[in-house]
C-alpha cells in the first residue's frame, strides 16, 4: 500500500453496514492529507424493497435507484448485502470521472471487545477475534464483518481499517464498567462496554469549538438515533454510558427495549416458554418505540401521530432519558452541559424540549426559540447548565482514523526502506 502525497485523486471509502442498510461516504484525500467529502448515501431496506441514494457534499442528488421487493420464484430475490457491495463498488467505478483511486476502506465495527481500543488494520486474526464477539452485538457485528469480507473478495489487496464503537469508552473507570457479578463471570468479558463511541468521539473533538467550559468540564452527550445511548464525559473523556454489555441496554430505542429487570428474562423463559432466539427477537426487534406504540420504530412517524399509543411511546422514551440523565450527572458529580445529537437529537425540537423540561432541576433552562431554530445553543444565556445541538459525523471520524493509520503505515514502510 502506498499513499502517494501530491496526488489529488486518492480517496477513502467509509462503510457503516447495518442489519438492513449499507451506509457509505467517499472522501477525497488531498496532498495535505485533508479529507473532502465527495459523496455519501446508502442502500436501505436490504432484503426487501431496497433503495439506493447518493448525494454530493452540497446535498445534491447524484443517483437513486430502487429494486423490487420479494416476488415469487423464478424472479430474482431482493437485493442483499452482497449485491449491495457489488452495486456500490460498480457505482463508484462508473462515477469515477476524475480518476479517483481508492486507497482504503474504513468500517464501523460495533464491538471491539476488551483488547481492541483503537482502530486497526484488518487481518485474518483480527477478523476471527471480531467474529467471536458476534453474540455480544447480534444486530450489528455480523453485518459489519460481512461488509469487510465482501470488500476483501471484491477489491482484494485494498487495506481495510476497523473502527470500534466500544473504543471511546475504554477510558471509563473500572467501577463504571463492572456488573455486580462473581469474578469468574466478569473474567469472561461480561462487563459494560458502551457503544456509539465513534459518534461521541466526533462530538468530543467538536465540543471545544462550541463550549470551552463544557469541553473542560462535565458533559452528557445524548446520541438519540435509531439506536440511542448517552455518554457522560469528563473533559471530553468517557466516564460512563447508558449502554452496557450489549447495545440493547439503557434507553428506549427504535425497536430495542433498553434496560430491563433481569427477572423479566427469567419470567419470559420459565412462564412464557420463550427460548433464547425468541427473547432476542423480542428485546431487539419488537420492543422500544415500535413495541410500545405498535405503530412504528420511527420517531418522525410517532411525532406525527395522534394515537395515544404513539404519545405513550414518546413519553416513555423521554422519561427514561430524564432518569438516565440524573444517573450520569451523579457519575460526573454535577453537570455543565448537555449535547443532543443523531437523528432524533438533531431534528426533533419537541423531544429536545421535553427532555430539557425534565432536566430543569439540573439547571437546564431552555431557549424555546433557539430550540425551534435547531440551535446550536438551545439554552438561555443565564442557564446554569448549557444545552447544545451538535450534528454528529461518525463517517468522518472513521475516515480520519483510516487516513491516520494508512499514513502511519506508509511512514513505517519508508523508514524500513531507508534503514534496509
Ligand atoms: N425531523 C425529525 N423529527 C423527529 N425525528 C426525526 C426527524 N428526523 C429524523 N428523525 C428520527 O431519527 C431516527 C433515526 O436516527 P439516525 O441517527 O439517522 O439513526 P441510525 O443512524 O441509527 O439509523 C428515526 O427515529 C427518525 O424518525
Ligand atoms: C450501537 C448502536 O446501537 O448502533 P445503531 O444506532 O447504529 O443501531
Ligand atoms: Mg446510528
Question: What report would you give on this structure?
Answer:
This protein is α/β, with parallel strands linked by helices and 420 residues long. The chain folds into 2 domains: 10-164 and 395-418, Nucleotidyltransferase, domain 5, CATH 3.30.420.40; 213-389, ATPase, nucleotide binding domain (Nucleotidyltransferase, domain 5, 2-Layer Sandwich), CATH 3.30.420.40. The protein is 40% helix and 19% strand. The chain contains 16 helices and 13 strands. Strands 5-4-3-2-1-6-8-7 form an 8-stranded mixed β-sheet, with helices on both faces. β9 and β10 form a beta hairpin. α6 packs across α16 (394-418). The longest helix is centred in the last third of the chain and has 25 residues, at 308-332. The chain is globular and about 60 Å long. Bound molecules: adenosine-5'-diphosphate, acetylphosphate and magnesium ion (MG). Adenosine-5'-diphosphate is lined by residues 225-227, 254, 298-300, 303, 342-344, 347-348. The site of magnesium ion has 4 residues, from loops. Belongs to the acetokinase family. Keywords: ATP-binding, Cytoplasm, Kinase, Magnesium, Metal-binding, Nucleotide-binding, Transferase. This is Acetate kinase. Pfam families: Acetate_kinase (PF00871). InterPro entries: Ac/propionate_kinase, Aliphatic_acid_kin_short-chain, Aliphatic_acid_kinase_CS, ATPase_NBD.
